[in-house]
Amino acid sequence: MPWRDGAGAPWLHGKFKGCGYRMTMPRQIILDVLSGTADHLSAEDVYHKVHNAYPSIGLTTVYRTLELLVHIGLIYKFDFGDGRSRYELAEGSKSDRHHHHLVCTGCGRIIDYTDFIDEEIELLKKTEKGLSEKYNFKITNHLIQFYGLCDRCQNK
Length: 156
Hints:
The protein starts with 7 loop residues before the first helix and ends with a helix. Strands 1-3-2 form a three-stranded antiparallel sheet. Strands 5-4-6 form a three-stranded mixed sheet, with no helix packed on it. By secondary structure, it is an alpha+beta fold. It has helices at about 10-20, 25-35, 45-55, 60-70, 120-135, 150-155; strands spanning about 40, 75-80, 85-90, 100-105, 110-115, 145-150. It has two domains: about 1-90, Arc Repressor Mutant, subunit A; about 95-155, Ferric-uptake regulator, C-terminal dimerisarion domain (Dna Ligase, domain 1, 2-Layer Sandwich), CATH 3.30.1490. The chain is flat, with a radius of gyration of 18 Å. The protein contains six helices and six strands, in the order ααβααββββαβα.
């Protein structure tokens, strides 16, 4: 798993300590689950994956841990309109994994896309610059979701 004893592990421990927390087994396991998938998992999805390997970790612990990880900026929490919060690892805008979401309102499918077109990149840069200047606000990241119908739902 990428978070265990790898290059990210000391940074994570430092991030927790810097925020006044310590790395615990449930926190480590939940980060491992999220780092091992490209899916947008709900708290229940995370719980089922964690519970299979570590039955002593309860659903309440998973909920609390996810909220803590959101609070300290290690994961993102999304509302894709299906009544369930979804989670994924936080990646900065400079990351290779930075992506936007296409959310199908028909079937609930979520498509991550990273193949940004040049016009989109220029528009985002211009928008971020304009907002930064207008509100004297330093933008460090952004999250974008588009809603519509996927190819499968359009063909029904």
